[in-house]
Structures are given as C-alpha cells and as structure tokens.
Amino acid sequence: MKKHDKKQIPQRVVSRLAMYFRVLSQLDAAGVERISSRELGEMMSITPSQIRQDLSYFGEFGQQGYGYRVKYLYEEICKILGLKEQHTMILIGVGNLGRAIASYTNFRNRGFYLIAAFDVREEIIGKRFNDLVIKPMHELGSFLDENKVDIAVLTVPASQAQEIANRLVEKGIKGIWNFAPIKLEVPEGVVVEHVHISDSLYSLSFRLREKTT
Amino acid sequence: MKKHDKKQIPQRVVSRLAMYFRVLSQLDAAGVERISSRELGEMMSITPSQIRQDLSYFGEFGQQGYGYRVKYLYEEICKILGLKEQHTMILIGVGNLGRAIASYTNFRNRGFYLIAAFDVREEIIGKRFNDLVIKPMHELGSFLDENKVDIAVLTVPASQAQEIANRLVEKGIKGIWNFAPIKLEVPEGVVVEHVHISDSLYSLSFRLREKTT
DNA sequence: TAGATTGTTAATCGATTAACAATC
DNA sequence: TAGATTGTTAATCGATTAACAATC
C-alpha cells in the first residue's frame, strides 16, 4: 500500500520526475545498470532523501543494499508520466516557435504525434509542413469534431491565445501546451502547461544584476 | 530600511516578479492607473499577502488606503529586473528554435540585442539571419575576445551543450540561457537559466493521466 | 474624519532533509 | 554474515497566508 495514496502529487514532484526520466534515459543509454539514490542525487545536485521521498509517492522501485536497476526505474517512470501511451497533438500557430516545437523529433519518439497544424496567415495556408498541409483557422472547429485530439500546442501571439483557448475548451480539448506569455483561464478539468520563455529571460537578467550589484 | 536587506532573493520571488511585470505592462497599456494587491491577486490567482510580501523584498511601492500606481510599480519592477539596461546576446545554434527565440522582437524592445549568431552547419554559415551573417563556430572564441557579450542563447543539441558552455565560461560569459535538455555544470558566478521545454510536455502528459485515472 | 489598504510581524502550512529500522 | 541502501517516519526549514498597527 502506497503512503500517499489519496493525495494529489505536488507539481514540484512531477517536474522532478521529468528530470529523473531524462537522467535515467541517459544512464541507460550509457549502459549503466544500477544506481543508488546517493549517486543519482550527486549527479542532479539534489539530496538522496528527496529522490526516495519523491519515488515513494508512486511505489517501491528499489532494493535495500543495492539501489535501483536503471532500466527498470526508467521504464516505471515512463509509465507514470504516461509516455507509454500515444498522444495526438495539433499545432496552432505555425511561426518559428511552432515549427521548432513541432519538428523536435524526439516528441514523436515519446508517443506525441502531430496530426494537424493551423494558422491564420493566408500566405502559409495550404503549404506543407512536416508531412502536414497547414490548415486555415476556421477549420479548427470541424477538425476537432472529427478527430480525437489530446493536446493543443499554442504558439500564437498573446493577444489571440485566450480566445483560441476558449474555442479549444468548448470542443473538449483537455490539454493545452501554452507558449504565449499570458495566463489562460480555463475551466476545472482542463490542464494547461505554460512554458515561460520570456519570464525566464527576465529572471536571467535579474540574476546577472544581482551578481554584480 | 528594507526588511530583507542581506538575504538573497528566492528564485520563486524572482519568477513572480517577472509575472507582475507582464501583468502590469498589460494594465498600463490598457490605461489602468491604480491597482490594489487584492485586485492584482485576483487577476493572477495569488494572495494579496504574497504580492505585498514579494514587493517588500525590494522596497515600498504602495500607499496605504490607495494601493499602487500601475505605471510607477511597473517602472520600478522594470528597474529591479534590469530591463532598463542594455544586454548583448549571441545565439549559438541557428535551428528552428534559435530562430524563433532570436526573432522574438519584444526582446529587442526590452533591451536585449542579438549581436551575432553561430552554427556548425556548413550549409547555413554565411547566410543572413535577422541582419546578421551566420558565423562558423570556430570563430566563437575570437569573437568573444573582441566583443562584450552578456548572454549566450544556447539552442544546440544536448550532446554539444556542455562542451560549448565550457568554452563560453572560459571566455568569461556570465549568463547562459539554455534550451538544451541537460543540466549544465558551470562554476560559481555564472548564471544559467534553463528553459525546460520537454520536461514541461512530460508534466502535461502526467497531469492529463492524473485526471482520467 | 472614516474606510481602505499598505508593509510587516506572527502563525500556519507544506516541502525538504535527517534519521533509522527493515532487509537485501 | 556484514555492509549498503532502501522506504518511511520525524525533525527542520522555508515559503505562504493571516492578522493588524500604521497611515493615506
């Protein structure tokens, strides 16, 4: 019986899970077979306690006196994160950023499939991108009626993001990966993951100043 | 006399500062003149206490019984974040992602100037990009000898990121904006800001699963 | 003035770390 | 077996929230 059974998992823990996943995949690729929480902690600059605490939310993956089998732990975290399943994605906004995200081939390897791309700009509608023909925005609704879409990748200007999000939610989209620098208001049950690109540059600017002042 | 004078500012607070900055700039653009911590908190889904607590790290910007003057608070946060100064940036890795980041015009408006772009790929070296001619990587060292660069934007594959970071650090770079999905090891005094694009997708995947299971 | 709202101190809450019995 | 390392409970630490005197 797991300790944390009922509680929902803190966002912090989920983020670290994604980090463990990344490091373990590297270790596995490098042929490492076992690792202790102490070694893993050293690699990632976090405490062994934190790693064991985090993992205990999901089950028991190690062995006393031995540590963790890298491949097994990797597979388990993969399952926990839902990376064994397939996810369909659509891209909204086929600018530089949209293209960059969508062509990152690794996502496809992890089960994230891009099945359509939309844009408002006449000059690119109908053009090919990554095996897809770019569709006009006004076809979004009918496309969503006819296709099961798990995740919408939103790479449009901030000024349009909320309005598009509303349309997506209305059509039943449950996951939005938002790159627009704006907080989206969505109803309970819809998951929004925001990538704070510009905020991150401002943080960097602050910390550079902090050093020198 | 400020309360937190000696302490260094928690990363959390800095991130929220960037959020306040964004929201205030929108409010100001919309012509809003004053706002209370309660109203701002409502807009951002955080408590008024937290806003006041955060701001108290840096000074006193409000007025009892009135709240905050939007334009003034905006300007002050702008100063705190260092967005009144100019920053020079170089781009390393002119792929889709690099292009997207570098062409985001708002950065220039905030004082971030891209002064060079580097890549290893023969086929794009010498081509123009955003008023710049793409330089070969082997010119990186000499360029850094001759130019003051504040921030290096790293949009290269994970496999090359650490090696390039080492070269940058060696040449005295103090700020690295890292988009490669790998933790960079840098000496004390160098600030690395990491944008976790893929981790964020894995988080989204987890939270979608969490809802349905 | 009376009402509103700040800045700051104190209380609470949650997350991280330490400690240790269990056991491979 | 003895040493190592887990999973988990307890202690600590830090961050968030509540409360309130100060005052516009």
Describe the structure.
Two copies of one chain form a homodimer. Chain A starts with 10 loop residues before the first helix and ends with a helix. Chain A has helices spanning 11-29, 37-44, 48-56, 70-80, 96-103, 105-109, 140-146, 158-170, 197-212, and strands spanning 34-35, 68-69, 87-92, 112-119, 128-129, 132-133, 135-136, 151-154, 175-178, 191-194. The first copy, chain A, is globular and about 60 Å long. In chain A, the strands form three sheets. A six-stranded parallel β-sheet of chain A has the order 7-4-3-8-9-10. The first copy, chain A, has a two-stranded antiparallel ribbon with strand order 1-2. In chain A, strands 5-6 form a two-stranded antiparallel sheet. The model of chain A is unreliable at 1-6 (pLDDT under 50). By secondary structure, chain A is an alpha/beta fold. Chain A has two domains: 6-80, Orthogonal Bundle (Arc Repressor Mutant, subunit A); 87-198, NAD(P)-binding Rossmann-like Domain (Rossmann fold, 3-Layer(aba) Sandwich). The first copy, chain A, is 45% helix and 17% strand. Chains A and B meet through helix 1, helix 5, strand 10 and helix 9 of A and helix 1, helix 5, strand 11 and helix 9 of B. The first copy, chain A, binds a DNA duplex (24 and 24 nucleotides) through residues 3, 10, 12-13, 36-38, 46-50, 52-53, 55-56, 60, 62-68.
Q: Give a quick account of the main beta sheet of chain A: strands, pairing sense, barrel closure.
A: 6 strands, parallel
Average pLDDT value of chain A?
Answer: 94
Q: Uncertain regions of chain A: pLDDT < 50 for 5+ in a row? A: 1-6
Q: Name the CATH superfamily assignment of the largest domain in chain A.
A: NAD(P)-binding Rossmann-like Domain
Work out the largest interface and the residue count of each chain: A-B, 59 and 59 residues
Work out the count of structural domains of chain A.
2
Under the CATH scheme, which architecture of the largest domain in chain A would be assigned?
3-Layer(aba) Sandwich
- The helix/strand series of chain A, from N terminus to C terminus, equals HEHHEHEHHEEEEHEHEEH
Q: Can you count the helices of chain A?
A: 9
Strand content of chain A: 15-25%
How many E strands of chain A? 10
Q: Which CATH class of the largest domain in chain A is shown?
A: Alpha Beta
- Secondary structure class of chain A reads alpha/beta
Shape annotation of chain A = globular
Terminal Cα span of chain A: 52 Å
Helix content of chain A: 40-55%
**CATH topology term of the largest domain in chain A:** Rossmann fold
How large, in whole angstroms, is the Cα Rg of chain A? 20 Å
Strand order within the widest beta sheet of chain A = 7-4-3-8-9-10
Multimer state: homodimer
